Amino acid sequence: MRGEKRIYERDVIIETISRLLIPFIQLFALYVIIHGAGGPGGGFQGGVIFASSFVLYLVVFGLAAAGKRFPEGANTALMSTGVYLYAGVGLLCILVTLGAAEYLNYGYIPLTHMFEENRALGMDLVEIGIGITVMAVITEIFFNLVWKKEEEGGKEE
Amino acid sequence: MIVPIDLALLTLIVIIALVAITVKDLLSAIMLLSAYSFLMAMVWVEMHSVDVGFTEAAVGAGATTAFLIAALARTVRWEKG
Amino acid sequence: MIEWLFGELLAKYNYWVSIILILIGFYAMIAKDNLIKKVIGLSIFQTAIFLFYISLADIGPLPKKGTAPIVSEEMIHMGYVYVNPLPHVLILTAIVVAVATTAVALALVIRLYEEYGTIEESEIIEKERERGL
Lengths: 157, 81, 133
Hints:
The complex is a heterotrimer. Chain B is an all-alpha fold. Chain B is built from three helices and no strands. Chain B has one domain. Chain B is flat, with a radius of gyration of 14 Å. Chain C is built from six helices and two strands, in the order H-H-H-E-H-E-H-H. Chains B and C meet through helix 1, helix 2 and helix 3 of B and helix 2, helix 3, strand 1 and helix 5 of C.
């Protein structure tokens, strides 16, 4: 298995079915992320489901096409974007009230006029941050497990 | 918790775990581990722990299986001996 | 004697199954020669510990009216009780750690295969002995 170049074969049925299926997987992942505050689900689970759609894309379309769609630089940027969103929403409470509210007290963020709605929207923003980070990290782990460096393989043989 | 469903699922889980560590084909072992994770998710939903069951079905049966198969594609498929 | 056996020992069969699964995973981690089999044994071991914790949180068979910990005020007034949600949250964190440990273990297995050309533990030890390590 190792060493031989695997030639990528196109299969019309698998490609069409996954083109149809991937948007629905991503829609379900977004539903899980947004619904996570009041039921089962949440940022981590939604992020994993979102990453599994990228795994399906890689399995069906091959590593070259997937590497073009999800470049490593964009994935690294998304990882830190999620963490900054997660921490920034908490810090925003201190910033907008000039230190009157506590860290992570989302009700004071002036998104709407209602205190409780502000809190719900802040929780959703934090879940979206977690989801972005988990999606990028799981995708990157899978890509790095599959991907094999040509130079190192040549040196080893 | 419903006792007959619980007993049936746990019996199946023990059998699948025993087969998964015995079989020589590593791809079969990985797929049996995926089935094991799905049955475990069913046990947890049936014990009213829906959040853990959901996470196990997404992570244990999805992401971990994908990682194991990716590792198997870089190494050998058959166990020796 | 028989009543004690069925009432105390076999009524808590979840814990017995959890111990059996822990022993299966532990056997795979110690006795199997293949490194991917060891990772599978580690996964079984972790899941058995999750089963132990979730069984601690559970409230028993159905007549006690235990439900999932997503309840409204009316359901509590109607006499429903919900299972303890604290072990669920602990196990949610443990599942995240489990997928991370599996990914790290698989990365190490791939690195070992690139170094020694095999994923059998005894052959790796033999090759290390040949190199004089």
